[in-house]
Amino acid sequence: MALRLGAVLVLTVACLAWVLWGVDYDEAIAGLGRFRWGLVLPICSLYLAAHGLRAQRFRLLLPDNAARGGPLDYRASFSSLSIGYLALHVFPFRLGELVRPYLVREQRGVAFGDSLAVVVMERILDVLMLLAMILGTSLFVPLPTRLEVGGTDILALAQRAAGVVALGGTVALGVVWAAGPEVARRIATLPFGGRVAPLVVRFHGAVAGLVARPAAAMQATLLSVGIWVLTLFAVQLQLVATPGLPTDFGAALATWTATLSGMAVLPTPGFFGGFEAACTAALQLLGAPRSAAAPFAILLHLVQFGFTIVLGVGFLAWEGLSLREVVAQSQRGDTPG
User: Fold this and answer.
1) CA distance 304 to 92
2) What is the tens place of the pLDDT at every residue in 158-180?
3) Local structure of 35: helix, strand or coil
């Protein structure tokens, strides 16, 4: 674990060093002085609206009878999402992914496997949205044939990775839906099966329940589109707020698609390094000077990171919880129950 963390930190520092290399700092500081800070509140409002759609999507995908006393209420979904995203950004190796299932289990009686299955379905939907944005960027935004960071074409790599994840996830959904109990029975015979098999059963129930609710599946897809459209508008608004950068929607699409691709290819703690490197590279390919692109990438990440921190810490205080304790308890072996 220590060796892996050390390697990830070295990668983070290397990416940030690449971003800052060759930047004219006097010009960058002058550009930040011309930044339209009054647009930060509207930008965060768009992020808040997208966050709200995520909370609704989680409720929609969760089986109606999963929560104790009826469907999961919106406030509980929004609160657990906020705290879970905070943990996801603060702790390495995506340890925060289990926080939301843990919280809704403890606070609303939702079985851990039910909510974890929904988280997996959310990730598949988001990967499909990333694939759609990569396709949209390649079709409608004039870019060079390669978008490179350190000699790696991140869009091509992300497209392959997202395609594999989407295809694998779709196949897994089909297999679990068609033969979930049988798959779980076979897994239960394996050394690690005692923990995994119950999750497969829950996942089968969630998928089968969603297949039986085509209207809910369509709504979840539309919510996913809405989430990323709102996020793209927020990125475009920050481009508008920054002098010396392209401000059209195509530029926002290319920039955010490249940034997401960098985060997927380089999953560093808090996504620092990969986020800035991919974002800076995309803006430079769109014709932006490095002294404007690099500060924008850093500020874009800080605004999003700050939004996540403020919202997550606020709900931690509201719920009277400790983040470290919540993350530790979510990692315990009894969570699948």
Assistant:
1) 17
2) 556 656 666 666 676 666 666 66
3) coil
Whole-number Å distance between alpha carbons of 116 and 128 = 19
Reading the block at residue 298, the tokens are 């850093």
Biggest CA-to-CA distance, the chain = 64
Closest CA to 161 of 140, 135, 131, 133: 131
Q: How many whole angstroms separate alpha carbon 117 and alpha carbon 217?
A: 14
Q: How far is CA 279 from CA 23, 148, 283, in A?
A: 15, 11, 6
> In 3-state terms, what secondary structure has residue 146?
coil
Give dist(CA 214, CA 196) in Å, integer: 27
User: How far is residue 280's CA from residue 22's CA, in Å, rounded to a whole number?
Assistant: 12
Q: Taking a C-beta distance cutoff of 8 angstroms, is the pair 217, 210 a contact? A: yes
Write out pLDDT tens, residues 37-87.
999 999 999 999 999 999 999 999 887 767 776 788 899 999 999 999 999
Sign of CA dihedral 195, 199, 200, 205: positive
Q: Identify the residue whose tokens are 């809704």.
A: 104
Q: Where are the domains of the chain?
A: 44-330
CB 180 within 8 A of CB 208: yes
Q: What is the mean pLDDT of the chain?
A: 80
Q: CA 332, CA 167: separation in Å to the nearest integer?
A: 30
Please choose, from the candidates 114, 113, 127, 206, the residue with its C-alpha nearest in 3D space to the C-alpha of residue 159: 127
pTM for this entry = 0.82
CA distance 114 to 207: 10
Q: pLDDT per residue over 205-264, tens digit each?
A: 666 666 677 888 899 999 999 999 999 999 999 999 998 899 999 999 999 998 988 887
Burial category of 212 from C-beta neighbours within 10 Å (exposed 0-12, middle 13-18, buried 19 and up): exposed
Per-residue pLDDT reduced to its tens digit, 277-316: 889 988 988 888 888 898 999 999 999 999 999 999 999 9
Output the DSSP codes for 202-213. HHHHHHHHHHT-
Among 82, 39, 12, residue whose Cα is nearest residue 296: 39
